[in-house]
Design brief:
Blueprint: E1 4-6, H1 8-21, E2 38-39, E3 50-51, H2 63-76, E4 77-79
Parallel strand pairs: 1-4
Antiparallel strand pairs: 2-3
């Protein structure tokens, strides 16, 4: 299946939507903020053309949860380079 192309804001919004709608961790992580994606070389990043460097607004206990959601979004979306 081909990945959808989206802007930085659209990808960040999708990550945020998945964080808020998840009941993982008993919903304790719903207040975490989505990270901002940036372009990267897909050959160096498992075929995905974007990555995340920092996770601001994520409590330490929720970091693995937000990283997992980010990985699922990476599988679904490519960052629009225009």
């Amino acid at each position: 299946m081909a990945k959808r192309r989206a802007s930085t804001d659209a990808i960040r919004n999708e990550i945020q939507r998945r964080i808020v709608s998840s009941n993982e961790m008993d919903g304790d992580c719903k207040d975490c903020r989505a990270p901002t994606p940036r372009l990267t070389d897909p050959a160096m990043n498992g075929g995905c053309n974007w990555t995340v460097d920092v996770f601001p607004g994520v409590t330490p206990g929720c970091l693995d949860f937000v990283k997992a959601i980010t990985r699922t979004v990476m599988a679904d979306y490519d960052l629009d380079e225009s």
